[in-house]
Amino acid sequence: xxxxxxxxxxxxxxxxxxxxxxxxxxxxxxxxxxxxxxxxxxxxxxxxxxxxxxxxxxxxxxxxxxxxxxxxxxxxxxxxxxxxxxxxxxxxxxxxxxxxxxxxxxxxxxxxxxxxxxxxxxxxxxxxxxxxxxxxxxxxxxxxxxxxxxxxxxxxxxxxxxxxxxxxxxxxxxxxxxxxxxxx
Length: 184
Prior knowledge:
The protein has helices at about 1-15, 25-35, 40-45, 50-60, 75-85, 90-95, 100-125, 130-155, 160-170, 175-180. The chain is mainly alpha-helical.
């Protein structure tokens, strides 16, 4: 029952976010839209930002799937972008509010998982330190996330698939090259 209530609360804020900025949404409005009382909201979440964080964390578990290898990272990144675009109103409302940090945290964490697995795969059997692998993964994490945030700021007009194809053209072969240069 708890997950059902949390999901109802999440759907409530998403519906309200399609109508107005998150900064203008109150807990009373969320509770009313979800068909619960304010106390029930507080039983599950401390505030709206806790709710937003829960939404991104719980939904993040569904994003990427098994696409975290060198041959499939494009599909993994595409899945992140498709998720972001499919929840456009909520993402844009989050992006343009003080809740933007939760969106950025979501993007960084999902991208970090994707890129770390790719770098670890490429480094397998090579003499490369964990510190250097983390450095390479961080570089790509920040590059990918920066690109995604820029795409969001421009209204997500380009299709996720086209954006990933363009990114792939820019970095093609650079991850294996970076790993090889760091291998001693």
